[in-house]
Each structure stands twice: as structure tokens, then as C-alpha cells.
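Supplementary Methods S3. Input chains for the assembly prediction are listed below.
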Amino acid sequence: MGKTAKVIFQPSGRRGEIIEGKTLLESAQKLGVDLESICGGKGTCGKCKVRVEEGFFSKDAIESSMSHLSPMTDGERKFIKEKDGPSMRLACACEVHGDVKIFVPEKSRAGKQIVRKTAKDVTIALKPAVRKYNLEVPKPTLHDLSMGDYERVCRALKEQYSLANLQMDYFVLRKLQDLMRLGEWKFTVSVWKEREIIRVEPGFVESCLGLAIDVGTTTVAAYLCDMNTGRVINTESMMNPQVPYGEDVMSRITYAMTSEDGLSTMQKAIIEGINDLIEKITTEIPVNGGERGHNILDMTVVFNTAMHHIFLGFNPEYIGRSPFIPAVQDPLEIKARDLGIGINPSGYVHVLPIEAGFVGADNVGVLIAEEPYTAEDIVLIIDIGTNGELLLGNRNAVCSTSCATGPAFEGAQIKFGMRAAPGAIEKVRIDPETKEPQYKVIGKADWHTHIEKVNAKGICGSAIIDVIAEMFKAGIIDKSGKIIKDLNTPRVRLDSDGKPEYVLAWADETSIGTDITVTQGDVRALQLAKGALYAGAKLMMKQMGIEKVDRVILAGAFGSHIDTRSALTLGMFPDCEIEKVYSVGNAAGDGAIMALLNVDKRDEARDRARWVKFVEIAVEPSFEKEFMAAMHVPHMKDKFPGLKSMLEKENVPVTIKA
Amino acid sequence: MGKTAKVIFQPSGRRGEIIEGKTLLESAQKLGVDLESICGGKGTCGKCKVRVEEGFFSKDAIESSMSHLSPMTDGERKFIKEKDGPSMRLACACEVHGDVKIFVPEKSRAGKQIVRKTAKDVTIALKPAVRKYNLEVPKPTLHDLSMGDYERVCRALKEQYSLANLQMDYFVLRKLQDLMRLGEWKFTVSVWKEREIIRVEPGFVESCLGLAIDVGTTTVAAYLCDMNTGRVINTESMMNPQVPYGEDVMSRITYAMTSEDGLSTMQKAIIEGINDLIEKITTEIPVNGGERGHNILDMTVVFNTAMHHIFLGFNPEYIGRSPFIPAVQDPLEIKARDLGIGINPSGYVHVLPIEAGFVGADNVGVLIAEEPYTAEDIVLIIDIGTNGELLLGNRNAVCSTSCATGPAFEGAQIKFGMRAAPGAIEKVRIDPETKEPQYKVIGKADWHTHIEKVNAKGICGSAIIDVIAEMFKAGIIDKSGKIIKDLNTPRVRLDSDGKPEYVLAWADETSIGTDITVTQGDVRALQLAKGALYAGAKLMMKQMGIEKVDRVILAGAFGSHIDTRSALTLGMFPDCEIEKVYSVGNAAGDGAIMALLNVDKRDEARDRARWVKFVEIAVEPSFEKEFMAAMHVPHMKDKFPGLKSMLEKENVPVTIKA
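Predicted C-alpha cells for the full assembly:
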């Protein structure tokens, strides 16, 4: 054994004696230091940059320090940029010749941290299921007949990356020999879960793409991610192509049960729809052999239980009727080609676990994105889609349930309801004195006053909540939701059925040539929807012995558009400090992205989906009573300190008749 | 804990204290006794029959012995037949109430031994990759929402059979819920390698089928096996449908390289051909849902390296030219649906490993069937197909090689050569005095003498060897293979080119209206073929320092038809005692069957394929010299003691001109 030198790596603090002449990369590998190397130490990827912190040298004289390391080579110099800062070296090219202290910058670590942009700024470690490895093998000769090309790949992976016992997907094996020769014995293999080789590409390739999908009953969202950096590169969405077969979950289950080939028709529709999304989302990705989608090597997907079953081709009959038993709750890993999904056919589609019959993988996505199981305070998470799903608890226990909110939040069952699209009124304020509204239309920058023509077309979900909360605060409806007729304003009038309605926009402000009104029926529909959410949350609190919720998180694309003040005013959820109510956007999609970028999150999802206690509120005897009570607007200020404090700050009189 | 009793199981000798009231099956499971139980102890399969050997009782008074066991139930009595012999009980129905000694008959053991009918009478243990398990789960209720149906199956497998961590194939999962309900919560799962559930059937099913396939260049053979008993239930064969694209390996490789879609055309041909075989071989199998072929749950396949590559869709270009590198040597497990093979789509096709570029999985089949690696004596195994493959050695070392014998043994390149089909002359004797032949035609019971018309059509491989050996012994050819003209018999004459030929059958004995002759060219073609085999064997002996072969095994469908005496006379292989030369039939197919019935044989195949040393004889400098020498008929009696002893016993003068 030769002379050794002491090498210390920061920030891990790992240290040890290294034989002189070994490279810094070899030292890092020997000492178990997390240091990225895609090319396996060939000096071709430039990923293993490190900063020399100390040798036996003064910190000012960097050049002299190099005596403890081999001189910088030309190949190395190519990768070291000025912006990297001083004293940077390529660890694979730099030999140890004396004691040194090395700092591994964040971006040179394999297990990088990425920052997710939400209210909480969660950081997650990068640990994707698929990683790429650059390989080079010697050209075989007649004197080297003891192995086939597959065995040569395995030997190289073991020697260069310590990866052993790998399988190779049959579809990859079919092209292996041609591709190895095409790259002149230089090639890149993509390894899934350190278990299976799912792609071989000629030459050295770095790009590693993954796709996270959130299949909602109404909307499907896709997120294309760079699995080397954790960045979301592109986002696409579409209407769920199953909508023609039923607007909601139950009607699709019925379609599957009653129409010939109903299930396979709907399965085909969603698979083909996702394949179209894959086409669109990869439009700008350079093609690296084969179809563009084949560059996507891994995929995660979340959905509610019915969408889960239909996507997978499982008969949804049994989740549609008592006792609501799903085919499977565990997470699944399915070959993309077995599903017909147009990512790489050798790649896997990871289906997140479901919690119970009515609480699906989308809620598990919310769960791992928001991590209520790590919270000290009591968190209520409301994910509003076509159905409402609730999570309540903290590190000690979390319960989940599903509420049949109906489609009112999405604009259905509302006279002038529409989806959140250009022309939809999305925000509303009403002057409590004059009862005159102001509103904002999607696609217009400013708030409308009655002076300007804005071509409104209808009211979307967030504005429905706004307008009814504002009507309550302005005294236009009472606590029971009844519209008060004798208010001396032209805005409140009787409709053709003799029922009162409130005119939100006069015909000349619209593009539809008629007044946009909020009817008594609209108010009732919203009361039913918000009542279901409120009662669900209340029953969960009761079951868990919780008196007060500390934090309310609104999730879902819709949830992120709601005015939290209006929602609190209306009583969509139990009382809470308004400062502790916030929106996080599509948390289910965030969960799918996290599971894509970090396999530990998949384990977490599996374990936590089982750990969360599902509460079936419909079978609870007191549900009916809670639901009836929850329909009212919460006017009893004393029992709602959070609401009271908010309204007082807003200077709302709340002198409504009790 | 209750009172215990002593229970002894024979023939394993396992014993222990068992709590009284436990059944004999539970006792066997606790003590690790190998006792079959397909229904998991429900008393429905009748597989766990055992004989009561001793309690505290006299052997004559069986009835009184029953006091140490619970009385026989009616359900039990149904399964106990008179032919089972006295004192039989169903272990799962019979409770222990005192000390007993129990004998587990062969047929009640899960790891049954089966006897294979070959010259050696090999016994192999039954340990198939796929086993069936009967399950019954309680109907789920609203109070049991913590798991899906898949999780219920897993729980039952764990509780009833101690099987844990099982995956379920996605295609099975799709039908799971319907099938569980169809069987009213009684169903049977098929488990592959204790890892993956590959089938669910409603009700309790026992039948478990597997298929072993030997894909030869010319012929494909299929063996349908009962994986519960190890019996071969049915056999089918066909011409390899790739024959139109090339008669031999090299011409098919060329076709793949030069024709557009040549590879996929040939792959499709063999896959569809095998699917036709599957149709035929299962004609009498009762359909149990789905297609008939879907009842086949496992498959093994052997072939030479070129057939291996084409079957798998691997470009065969690289095994066709130096340095002859295959895509993969290791065994493969491929989902049947990924190959398009018509067994159960969730089942696997196990592809046996190959040894080297020219020595394929078929030779590995021969290897594990004949096990030369367990032999004390030196064994030479000759597998003659379109190519000749040799194995030589014993427990210390085994070498393999491949010889380009050409197609002479199969009747090609022989003027009147034909396949072994009705009308082919298959055996020949020549009177050394008169030079008159006797021959036997396939499809005719008796030997032909020139008196009777037998409608011969041509000469098949075994008869070519016979006739040339007989011509030599009768002095019609000399040691160099030259036909001697001045023999004073009309049987030897000159053909139209002025070259000598021997008339084997006169035109009026044939159905082709012309004399069937053996030409000088035929003799040369056979000399080339047998010379290649002989030289190959000699070079291997030289490399291994072996002077003498103790045993010669002729394998292959053709090998089993050869007259071993003629083969020894001609010098197809190095000298050996004639008593130690024997045929084993299609040993490659036997190997495929063994690997189907016992997964340990698959491991053995993988390990031994690597252990066997491949000798590339074409690169050996002395090959040309050995080959030239081997073309001669071995006339030097003193150097061939085995041959000498045989010929002396046959009273052959062997006074041929040297």
C-alpha cells in the first residue's frame, strides 16, 4: 500500500485516509460522500465539481495549495467556469497528493434539495426512481467469448457504479446490440429503482424526464419534470375526455355498468387523452431516437377512486355500491406498455395508493404534499374538486373523509354558473349601503364598476362563494339564506316564478344580452355544498375529540381561487383565524410530482395512506342533523371567534335579523 | 397451553410435541414435514392423505387406534378409497388426541419425485415455478373497509399458506373483483416463484399445466406437462415455419440481415407456429375461462443461439460474424404477452441460458438432462441436429463445442436423401459375400429383401450411416471412402458421370420409378459430416488431456435413430466400448421439461452454462489436420480397441485394403 493522505469532505464532515494518487471522486465514493457523477469518472459530464477549502497552505495562496492535488488538466479546465467561484476542481480528474479539505457544493450532490413554491416552501430531496449512467465497454474480441453484450453491460455497471443484480427489460434487450455499436461502445443506460435497465441510448446522454399526472373527474393536469434538477419544465391540462360519459363519478360508474364496453370505452378515452397530453407537453423536447414520449422514463399518477379504477380498467361497480370495496388500495407499478401509456414502453407508471372506497390517490397526493402527519397544530385540509375531500389532524392522528358537495362549486346547478374561463365573473364585492356590486371578470385586469362594459358571460365557482358571502354581509340574505325582498334597491327583484333574485350584472354589461342574477335556488345549492363540507369537518372533529382547528388549507385548482374571507364568512369550514386560512393550489398534483422526484415519498404515501383513518360520515347517525345545521350562515358571532375577529376588522355591522 | 402429544412423521423422521386438538396437517406444517395441501386444510382437495402407523395400540386393531385421533368424518370418508390401503386418514380433518406415528406416502408429498424414462432412469424432484392455492375469504362488509380485494387475497395467502410480499400481475388485477364474486369468495390463485400472482380462477381448481418447447432449426417439439404430477400429458411437433426463409442457421441470419423486416417476419413465423402448436396440444384440455392456451401457466424453451435470437427478436447479425457475440447469455424470464406467446398472458416464458455464440440453450438442455458434471467416468455427448454439438468431460470439467456437420445427417446433400418420413429407408444391412442389401422402410413392419415391393422413396439419415458402414464392412468402399469398382456385382456400377455408385434399391422396389443409389458424392458428404464430429471430439480430448472416452451418449431425435454399431464402425466419434454407446432421444427437450418441472434445474442450467468451458475448435491450428484424418473410416483396428472388439464379435473380416 502506498502513502496515504487525510481527506475531509464538507459539509458532511466525512473523513478518512486515502492512498495518494486516488482521485477526489474515488475518495468521496470510498468515504460514502454524496457526490454526483453521471459519467462514472470519465471527466465528461462535469457534474463532480468541488471546492478546495484547505491543504497545508494559506487560504490566500490558492495556487500553492495545488501541490497537495494534481495540477489542473485541460479537460478539467473546460468545465470550470468563472461563475463557479475560486478553487473549483473536477473531483474525478484531481488526484490527492497530500492532506486536503474539500467542500461539495449543493449542486454537485446527487441527493439535491429542491424548493417547492407553495405557501409553506417545502423542500424535498431529489431521489427519482430512474437514474442515468454513462458507460463505456471495450469492443469484444474473439478472445473474450465468455459473455454476451448484456453481461458486458452488467459488468460495467458493477465495476463503474457498484450496481449489481440488474434485470434488463425485454424490449430494451431487443435493441441492445445495435445501440451499443451505434454509440461505438459508449452508451447511457437508464436504471429504474436500481433494479431494472429500462433504456439504452447510444452515446452519453444526461436528460432524464418524468411525468406527474393528476386525473380529476373534470380536468386532467400533467407536469413534465427534469429528474436531474427537480424542475417542472412544462405543464399541460385538458378536460377529462370521459366527461361525455358522465359529468360526475357516479354517472361514470353507471355508464360502465350499463353500457356495453362502457368501461373499456372510458379507459381508452383517458389513456388516449393522456397520450395527447404527452405529445403536447414534449413538443419542445429534442427527440433522442424513437418517439418523443419515449424520453419520459417514469410517471406518477393520482386520481379519485373511480377515476383510478376506470384508468386501470377495473370494473368500478363494487366501489359504486355498498360496501364500496376497491380492487386494490396499495400503490401499483405497471409497465407503461401494459397500460398503453405513451411514455417509454419499458418505463413504469406508479399509481399512488388509495385510502378507502371514496378517498382516492389524489387525496394521498394532498397528504404527502401537505404532510399533516408532521404538524404540531391541528390542520384541516379541504380539497375541493367535483367531490370534497377532507383531511384533519396532526402528528398524532389524521382522519380523512369524502363529502358529496355536488357540482355547485364548479358552477353547475347555478343559473348563470360557468367554468373558470374568460368572461366568467371571478370575484365580487357588494357595498353594504347601496347594495351595488363590483366584480372582476377573468381576462380583464381591473374591477368592474357599472360604468364600464366588460362582457361578462357568467359566474364561476369562486365568485359564487364571493357573491353569497357579500350578499350576507350586505344584509341581502339572512342567516337561513333567504333573500330579503324589501331593501329598496333595483338589484333585488322577483323573477318570473315570483322568487327573489339579486342582479349582479345588468344586461348591457354582459356579452349574453341578459341580466346575470343570483337566484334563491343558487343560494340554496351553495348552502347544500358548503353544508356538506362543514358537516363533514364537524363530524370528524367530533370523532377525534377536537374542539378547534388551528389551520385550514384550501387545496385544488378551485380551492386556490376562493377568497378565504368569503369562505370563512359563509361557513364553508369550521371557525379559524383568517390568517391561518390559506390556499396551496393543486396539492394532489404537487403530491404526484413529489412522488415522481423522490421514491421515499412513495413509501411515505403507501404507509400514510394506511395510517390515515377513513371516517365514513354518511353512516354516522348525527350526520343529518349536522348537515341541516351547517346549511345556515354562521351568524352566531360569539361561537365563532375567528369569524368575529375578521368581520370586526372589516367593520361589517352584522346586524342581520336572527 | 393445552395438553400435548408426541407426533412422529415418516419417512422424514420429523417429530415434536403437538397441542392436542391440532390436526395432523397443522402438525406437519409446524414440524416442517413435506405434506401436500392444495385446499389449505379445508378438506376439499383430498391431497393430504396419510397412513396411521402407530399409536398406543396393537397394529391389528386399527379401529382402537383411532382413540389417539379424532373419529373419521363423513367428509373425510369421501376421499379415502379402498385402493389407498388400510389406516388412511385425511391429515387436515384428523385431530391429534394422543401419541401417534404417521407415514406420508409418496403421492401426498408436495415435493414429489418423478421418474423420467431414459436409458438412465433419472429421477427429478417436482418443484415447478407455478403452484396453485385454494383460498376462501369472508365477504366484505361496511365494517371492514380497511382493505381492497387484492389486500384481502394477500391476507388470506399469508394466513393460510404463509406466503407474503406477493405482487399481482396487472392483467390479473383487472379481473380480480369479478372472479372473486363469481366463485362466491372461493377461488384459486396461481403463484409464480412465490413472488407474483399470475392467475385467479373462481372456485377450487387443481389442474396446473406447463409447456416445454424445443425449437430446432428444422423441427419444433412441444411437451405439455401436468405440473402437479410431472407427467407429460401430450406431445406435438411441427416443421419450423422459418424453413422457407433458410434451411440452416447461416441462411436465416443472412435473411434477417438482407431482407426488409426479415427478422420480424421470422420471429412472427415462429411465434405463430408455437401458438398453433399450443392450440393443437390443448385440444383435449377442458376450457376454464378464457382461451384454452391460457390454462398453460408456465413455459420453458430451448434452441440454438440463432433460433434463440430470432425467437426473441434480437438482431442475429452479431452472432453470425466474428467475434460472434450474443445479445445475452443469461436465462431470461419474459412475460408471455410481451412475446405474443399464447399461453396465459400473465405467465412467464423461461428462456434457458446459452453457453456461447455457437452453443445454445438446447445444449444447456442436454447438459442438465444428462448431467455430465456429476459423472465419475468421461462422457462424450453428441447432440446431432442441423448442427452437431458436443459435450465432453466429467465432474471435474466439461467442455463444449459446436461442429459444422452440414445437413448430410438429415438427408440433404445426399442424392436420394430425404427426411425420416414414411417411405424412407431407415436401416440397411449388406451381405459381405453377395453384396446384396436388406433394408427397412419407415411405415413397413418387416425388413425388405429384393423379393417384395415396398415402395421405397429415398434414404433418411440413419440409413445413410448404416449403408456406408455396411458398404465398408462388406468391402465395397475402402478406408478412404472410395467405392471399389471391380467387385463383380451389378450393385456397383458407374453413373452417368462415370463415377461409381452402389444400387440400394432397384426401380421396381421403389415408388419413384428409378433405382435408389448411394453415390461416391454421398459417401464424401457423409465423410465430411462425420469427420467434423470426430475431429471436434478429438480436439476437445486433446485440450482436456483425455486419452479415452468411457461413455458416448447420442442425443437428438436423429441421434436416437442411429444404429450405434454403424456409427462406431464409421468413426462418427472416438473409439468406445459398444456397450457404453447409447441413445437418449431428444435430451434438449428433456432438459426443457426438467427446467419446467423444477426451478432448481433452472439455477443449475444458469450456473452450469457458465461453468462449462466453450472450445472454439475452428480457431484451433490443428483442426484442419484432425479434420482431414477424421474423414477416413477408422480401419486401424489396433488403435480402436472398442471398435475391434465389436467387429470381431460380429465376425467382420475387415480385410480391407489399407
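Confidence is low (pLDDT under 50) at residues 56-65, 113-121 of chain A. Chain A has five domains: 4-108, 130-202, 215-351, 367-406+526-649, 408-522.
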